[in-house]
Amino acid sequence: MKLATLVTGIAMVGLVSVGNITTHNTSPSVSIGVVASAAEGPSVQEKIALVTKNKGQIGGGDQLRRFFYGDLEPLGVQPGGAGMVVNLYNKANNITFSYCATYDVVVAVKKGKVAMFAASEVK
Known about the structure:
Layout: H1 3-25, H2 28-39, H3 44-53, H4 60-67, E1 72-80, E2 83-90, E3 95-100, E4 105-111
């Protein structure tokens, strides 16, 4: 056997061994689990509680849209807030939000399908 053939063979075995070690050291299942748990976010009840807690604060409407995108059905419009408010119903959770677009705030939250809130609730 020639020396060049022997050296080439040893070099090839070394490359395959190093390549094999590096592929086994990374564990994609661990990183996938971390990403999946971080993406879950708050539960529906926690989202409703956050919207209720931030009621009357500017930007609350943005929070409402992010949490319930595509799930809100308009029930009616009534005087309140800085002019008019829209009552939005979430069928999946049986809850109604009263939203003032002028200031982007949620002014009232109530369980059930509420077409008109009391005037004192949406001022």
